[in-house]
Design brief:
The complex is a heterodimer of chains A (610) and B (104).
Chain A (H helix, E strand, L loop, with lengths): L1 H13 L12 H28 L2 H11 E6 L6 E2 L5 E13 L1 H7 E2 L2 H6 L1 E3 L6 E3 L2 E2 L4 H10 L3 H8 L7 E7 L1 H10 L4 E10 L7 H4 L11 H5 L1 H5 L3 E7 L5 E9 L7 E2 L4 H18 L3 E8 L5 E7 L12 H4 L2 H4 L1 E2 L6 H10 L8 E3 L4 E4 L2 E4 L6 E3 H7 L2 H10 L2 H10 L26 H8 L6 E2 H12 L3 E2 L14 E2 L3 H10 L21 E11 L2 E14 L6 E8 L8 H4 L1 H14 L12 E4 L2
Chain B lengths: L1 H17 L1 H55 L2 H11 L11 E4 L2
Chain lengths: 610, 104
């Protein structure tokens, strides 16, 4: 007590001298409280220090598990546009519906036995309840099967797969179906975002654009050739989310999102559409097996249209058949027949074996070379070079060809791009056949001058005519719209190319081989070609009808080649089969591109601005 | 007792005055801490907002792509040509009914 009192006194003197404030102060209680409080504080602080300094990872991990998520931002494949910015291929989001069979099996019983096994007895009430629902009893599954267009049994089979954790039920499903499935709220069924490629122009462009597979990888045509560019890359980010799933913090970028490139083609969809419908019609009328049309701008080398038939609807994969998929204009070769005659005339002019005014005697309409006969349709007599092309005289060009060395003619053909890639850069291009060898018989040389023994693709032939049309300049062929003007290479002397073009104008005139190739308001220059198709052991009864031409003849803008394979019936000549197609397509191309009419005989009403 | 209370308050006030700088720094720390909480909250709000806006943008893109498909299915050239020729009885101009305008 003494000590206590002493302490009390001391306190009193310290704190409030002269006044007795703490009458009931007990010192042991004070010490006890102090120690307790201090201990608790120490415990709390040490726990805090332990969590904060010594072992922080555990709680950090736990927090991250609950809030850190990886989000993916999907990049859709780039669009493909035509030269006027009209989309030809568009990717839209679609969904894949997939199942986790293990999770499904944990919630649903497929057999009665499984169902009985899942019965659990409640220990409190003694009631028996099944933890699984019987699969066939649930109406939701039949609803799912119906909406996904799968048989219920087939669905059950997929879901019963042992040890499987992932199985696609259906791909390329649209948003509405996904919402419906989400409402069914079935265990183990989830969706995954992917893209669906849609081609609004359908079969018109199917051969050149190609296709993508379900994983948005190009597998044919432009889609494959420019796959890398069109693809882009989906981005991945690590983010922190709050309770409601809102992103509250971007932690790090795991994969940089790369926007997909849009591809602009040189195709003019308006011309392309006309070309396709005309080709399809011509093939139907002539009962032909296939055909191609290529429209080239002679001054840039751009492809304005390239169509093939048969084609298919790329939006309906059930129609997928490899033979319909082929881009015949670049993959299929044929013997060009008489369409090479202007090239032979050019060759003779280049090597100065003739001049433009020369008159060649083709009578009596046939000639014998090396024991074999070649002949014209009928005796044409003495005719000049323009007439040779107008009448398509085999004897005329053979005589020119025989004056040339074989390698000279080959050199000219090769200058016109035969036997070489066009540089279009699409897969599956073939480069035709231009035999290179030293020894040629006269007969072989003669037949080569009217287009036998060599093969070209439709595109190669179009390029050869484009070279003629551009005054002997070869431009690199491109299916992409050129941002900068292409630089050409002079391969044929300018004056010779121009002279040959003016010689070819006779083809659509009266007495020419293709009056049906006429285009109203414009002068055209062109050449027909009807060649027999080679079969094993010789030439068969099938034909290839080709018309290659340029317009306007005074200053060519477009080179068009129409190739129709195996027309049946009596009218198989190119002048009847291919020339009318050429005329319609050329007319559309010229009118749509606002090319000035150059035919003085057709008078237009002029409205001159000052 | 009232006198005593006043006295204690006076003491506290005196103490606070004595350690004015420490008190000021302490208050600044508290203010800064609260401000930190406030900005973090605001940042999170903004991040959420930008995520929502990006999502909206994606949704609009999808809608735009779907509309593009619809547009191009409807304005497909062969379809227009067919409608023009058959339904509207239109025809391609010929040289007789066209006028050549030269632009210079």
């Amino acid at each position: 007590m003494k000590i206590k009192r002493h302490l009390k006194k001391q306190k009193m003197t310290l704190k409030t001298p002269g006044k007795n404030v703490y009458e009931t102060f007990s010192s042991w209680r004070y010490i006890f409280v102090s120690i307790t409080v201090a201990t608790i504080a120490l415990l709390l602080i040490s726990r805090l220090a332990y969590l904060q300094i010594i072992e922080p990872e555990y709680l950090t991990n736990e927090a991250d598990k609950r809030s850190l998520r990886i989000t993916e931002s999907v990049t859709h494949r780039g669009n493909i546009e035509d030269r006027n910015g009209e989309e030809l291929a568009i990717s839209v989001p679609a969904y894949a519906i997939w199942a986790d069979p293990k999770r499904v099996k944990s919630a649903f019983a497929f057999t009665e036995q499984e169902w009985l096994e899942s019965v659990v007895v409640n220990p409190k009430t003694g009631k028996e309840t099944a933890s699984k629902t019987f699969f066939y009893e649930s109406k939701k599954w039949s609803a799912l099967a119906e909406v996904l267009d799968i048989e219920l049994d087939q669905l059950a089979e997929i879901l019963q797969k042992p040890n499987s954790r992932f199985s696609y039920l259906k791909r390329q499903v649209n948003q509405q179906i996904v919402e419906y499935i989400n409402q069914l709220n079935l265990t183990g069924i989830s969706e995954q975002l992917e893209s669906h490629r849609f081609y609004p122009t359908g079969e018109i462009n199917a051969n050149i654009l190609g296709l993508t597979d379900l994983d948005s990888q190009g597998i044919e045509g432009i889609e494959k050739s420019y796959n890398r560019y069109l693809q882009g890359q989906s981005g991945q980010k690590r983010v922190r989310q709050d309770r409601l799933g809102n992103v509250i913090d971007n932690i790090e970028v795991l994969k940089v999102k790369k926007a997909a490139g849009n591809l602009q083609l040189s195709i003019d969809q308006r011309i392309q559409a006309v070309a396709y419908s005309e080709l399809k019609r011509a093939i139907k009328i002539n009962d032909a097996t296939s055909g191609s049309i290529v429209v080239l701008d002679v001054n840039t080398g751009e492809i304005y249209a390239m169509v093939n038939s048969p084609s298919f609807n790329p939006n309906d994969r059930a129609q997928y058949q490899p033979y319909k998929l082929r881009n015949r204009a670049i993959t299929d070769t044929f013997e060009p027949g008489s369409t090479v005659k202007p090239l032979v005339v050019s060759s003779a002019l280049i090597y100065k074996k003739t001049d433009i005014d020369e008159v060649i005697d083709t009578s009596p309409g046939w000639m014998r070379i090396g024991g074999r006969r070649i002949r014209d349709g009928h005796n044409l007599g003495k005719i000049d070079l323009a007439m040779i092309l107008k009448k398509s005289s085999n004897i005329g060009v053979s005589k020119l060809a025989l004056r040339l060395q074989p390698d000279q003619l080959q050199q000219t053909f090769s200058d016109f791009g035969f036997g070489n890639y066009t540089g279009i850069g699409l897969i599956g291009e073939s480069f035709g056949r231009l035999p290179l060898r030293g020894r040629w018989s006269d007969f072989e040389l003669a037949t080569m001058s009217f287009g036998y023994g060599i093969t070209t693709t439709t595109l190669q032939l179009a390029r050869a005519y484009a070279i003629l049309g551009s005054g002997g300049v070869q431009y690199p062929i491109s299916i992409l719209k050129n941002a900068t003007a292409a630089r050409g290479e002079q391969v044929i002397p300018n004056n010779i190319a121009r002279e040959v073009v003016s010689m070819m104008e006779g083809v659509s005139e009266k007495g020419g081989t293709a009056p049906k190739a006429k285009v109203e308001g414009y002068r055209i220059a062109g050449k027909t070609g009807t060649s027999r198709k080679a079969v094993a052991g010789g030439y068969g009864d099938d034909y290839v009808s080709v018309f290659a031409g340029l317009a306007p003849a005074s200053n060519p803008r477009f080179a068009i080649v129409v190739m129709i394979n195996e027309p049946q019936g009596d009218r198989y000549y190119a002048g009847d089969v291919a020339a009318p197609v050429f005329s319609t397509v050329m007319k559309s191309a010229l009118l749509l591109s606002h090319v000035r009419p150059d035919d003085e005989n057709d008078s237009y009403t002029y409205l001159e601005s000052n | 007792m009232i006198a005593l209370n006043t006295h204690l308050l006076c003491l506290i006030a005196a103490d606070l005055r004595k350690h004015f700088f420490s008190v000021l720094v302490g208050m600044l720390i508290v203010c800064s801490a609260i401000y930190n909480v406030y900005t973090t909250h605001k940042t999170r709000g903004l991040v959420t907002q930008i995520e929502h806006l990006l999502q909206d943008k994606d949704d609009l893109m999808m809608e735009w792509r779907n509309l593009l498909i619809e547009e191009h299915t409807l304005d497909e050239h062969s379809r227009i040509r067919r409608i023009a020729l058959k339904k509207l009885s239109m025809s391609q101009t010929t040289k007789k009914n066209s006028v050549l305008v030269e632009l210079r």
